Amino acid sequence: MVKIDISSLSTEHFDHDRTWETMWKAEAFFNSEDFRENYLNSLAFHESGHAAVAILMGVTAFRFEPPSVCWDNERNAPTIRWAQVNLSTSSAPTELVPRLKIWFAGMAAQRKLAPNPAFDALKSPTLLETALAKSDYLNHGGEEKNFEVDKATAESELSELLEIPGFCEGIEMLADDFKSQIFPLPEVPSCQS
Length: 193
What we know:
Blueprint: H1 11-14, H2 17-30, H3 33-38, H4 40-56, E1 62-65, E2 68-72, E3 77-81, E4 84-87, H5 96-113, H6 117-123, H7 125-139, H8 147-161, H9 167-182
Antiparallel strand pairs: 1-4, 2-3
Helix pairs in contact: 4-5, 4-9, 5-7, 5-8
């Protein structure tokens, strides 16, 4: 059974009525047959795409993290965070285009290896990741006027990466690790004769 991480919540937010409701909804969703059948592979390829490209860009450590409930200060409400890859920031590239490649690698890998319009719509990844990538880009010295050009460069280079023999197989191996670590299959009792 997948447990939802709530360790980032403060005591005040932990005790909030909607936090528990959100946690139960998250637990029901991530443990459902619907999630396993319709979303798990897409999520695994998405997060593994980030990890694989990050490794190529010099990131030396990462870990897969389970789904969590955290507090959204803008909405003043609890929110569900999907399982994700957490990259070591100490080894992350400082150049802007490689950083954008890591941001957009998830969508590129998922769309190539496990296309799923339902996943795209549910997670709203394109808008969210573009906003997060742009924020990261600007915070690391990028200029607003250059973002679209550097984004296009990163996406073009990602397309080439995904055509390298063996690269997609590496993403598939990482996706298998992601699924076994974060979403292990329930144990089936053995029948002894």
